[in-house]
Every structure is written in C-alpha cells, then in structure tokens.
TrEMBL record, chains A, B:
Positions of the HTH asnC-type domain: 2-63
Listed name of the protein: Transcriptional regulator
Keyword Transcription regulation among UniProt keywords: yes
InterPro entries in alphabetical order: ArsR-like_HTH (IPR011991), AsnC-type_HTH_dom (IPR000485), Dimeric_a/b-barrel (IPR011008), Tscrpt_reg_AsnC-like (IPR019888), Tscrpt_reg_AsnC/Lrp_C (IPR019887), WH-like_DNA-bd_sf (IPR036388), WH_DNA-bd_sf (IPR036390)
Keywords per UniProt: DNA-binding, Transcription, Transcription regulation
Originating organism: Mesobacillus campisalis
Organism classification: Bacteria, Bacillati, Bacillota, Bacilli, Bacillales
Cellular component aspect of the GO annotation: cytosol
BP terms from Gene Ontology: response to amino acid
Pfam families, per database record: AsnC_trans_reg, HTH_24
Amino acid sequence: MLDHTDKRILEELSRNSRLTMKELGEKVHLTGPAVSARVAKLEDSGVIEGYTIKVNQAKLGYAIHTFITIITESIFHQSYLSFIKTQERYLINNYKISGDGCYLLECKFPSNEELNEFLKELNEHANYKLSIVIEK
Amino acid sequence: MLDHTDKRILEELSRNSRLTMKELGEKVHLTGPAVSARVAKLEDSGVIEGYTIKVNQAKLGYAIHTFITIITESIFHQSYLSFIKTQERYLINNYKISGDGCYLLECKFPSNEELNEFLKELNEHANYKLSIVIEK
DNA sequence: CCTTTTGACTTTATTTATGAAAGGAGTGAA
DNA sequence: TTCACTCCTTTCATAAATAAAGTCAAAAGG
C-alpha cells in the first residue's frame, strides 16, 4: 500500500510542505509528474490530511503553553464542553482520554493573569490538574 | 507589528499552506507579490516556523495515541532521556513540564502489544501514568 | 507650503513550475 | 507471445512565482 518512496515523500513534506513537485521529485529520485501523482494518491487515500504551517505562538503573544487534565464530577460533560467552546482563543487541542481524567486540554495563554482567570472559570465546570510546559 | 491582514494570512496558511500566492492574495485582498512579501516577512521574523503536513497516523498503522506522564525517581533524567531517543518511531512530542510529573510524553503505537512492550522498557527508567486518547 | 523620504502596494515582464497527454518499460496472467 | 496494467518519463501549453520598475499616500524637514 505504502512503499518506501511514499514514506520518503511524507518525511520531506513534513519537513517542508511548500517544496515544488520538481524539488520533491529530486529528493526522492522521481520526476515532477511522477511525484505529483503519488502525492495526489496520498491525498485521496487520506494519508495526507492537509497542509499547514507551524506558528510560533510566543511571537503571537501566547508565551504560556499548558496541559490541563480535566476531571468532571458529573457524568454529564456538556457544561465543560460548552464552556471551552467559548474559550477558543486559548485552545490548542481537547483530547478525550481514558486514564487519569476525562479530558486532556492543551491550551496557550498570553499571561498568568489570563491563565488564572481561565482556571477560575473552568473550575465552575470541572476539576483540573495543571501542567505548564517548560520545554519541548 | 502584526496587523489584521497578517493574521488572516496565518489563518489561511494554517488551513492550507499550499495555496498559491495568487490564491492567498485573493483571500486577503492583495496581489501575489504583495502577499508574497508579507509571507517572507513572517518567515524572517520567525512567526512562521515552517510548512508541514497533517498525516493520518492511523492510516500509517499507528492506531493508538497516548499521553504518558513521566515521573522519574532520580534527579538525573539522563536514563529516561537516553531511552526515549531509542524509541523515535513511537514518539510525537516530549514536553518537560512543571506540575504532576517531570515530562509529558506524547506517543503513537500500532498495537497494544507494542505499547505494552514500550511501557515495560520505560518502567526501567521512570514511573509513568498512561492516558489513551479516545477522541480529539 | 512644497519637497523629500519611506513604506507598502501594483503592474509588467521574465523565469520557473504545474499538469495534461502521449509514449515506453517492466510485470503478471492467459 | 500477447494483452492488460501500473508506473514512470518526456513534451508542451498554461499558470504561478519573482525581480524590477513605477504608483501612491503618509510623515518629516526645510
């Protein structure tokens, strides 16, 4: 289904998704049209879900990166889920998990003040454990 | 420093980083060369860190997505850090965190067997708490 | 008030990449 | 052998990127 060349293509596009088909072709030893056809297949089959950029959140003013383990008391999660929908500017990911907690919420904040305010509001909907990312 | 148009550019490129400069220009009401110059600025200033793809890990055979909270007993983390360097195929991210644990390790696995084997080996270097992602 | 400078943009023209079409090499099945 | 199939290359028309020159408006200085 996926041969070595396809994996090379995924590696190269992960590193730089704005390569031209010609450049990508040179890296994996194919011509432009050939590599273009393979990329189209990878898109159609859903292996490549999309093309995106890595944004430096700190330079956008979001210096604080956190993971918040959510423990909801009630069996109804709707209160928590509705709340985070109103907090999109802070959200990176919300994972439903099994294990120690119901959700793992990945967030970014510009300042401790805003983090603190967020946690205060969050606490009305769920308990939490906070982890702050020091280094990636 | 970063005006509304720059933010629009970041949004559009986050959604699809393979837009042509012409298409991107149309979306933000600029010509190709104008938007190209802005993107170059965003790259030079480090706001755009890179261009990448979203890969469907499940379709690559990695169906299991986990977060593992690492608690190292000793004050020397080297044993753990050396270990994970040998496990690159499973690794997505390793965050050094403050809070409940020393590291938060994001991993992917093809099967419970390999996850189990990984945990067994991990346990020689650190204690852990496992969370498995059910939904994103 | 006029002139100059600056920055961000558009226009134009050249270079370069894309993508469709045709053709060839290798593989497996009848 | 022959056919069908897949995957590739080559070629070429079209489209995009990029460099250079020109436009315009706002700010600074005489």
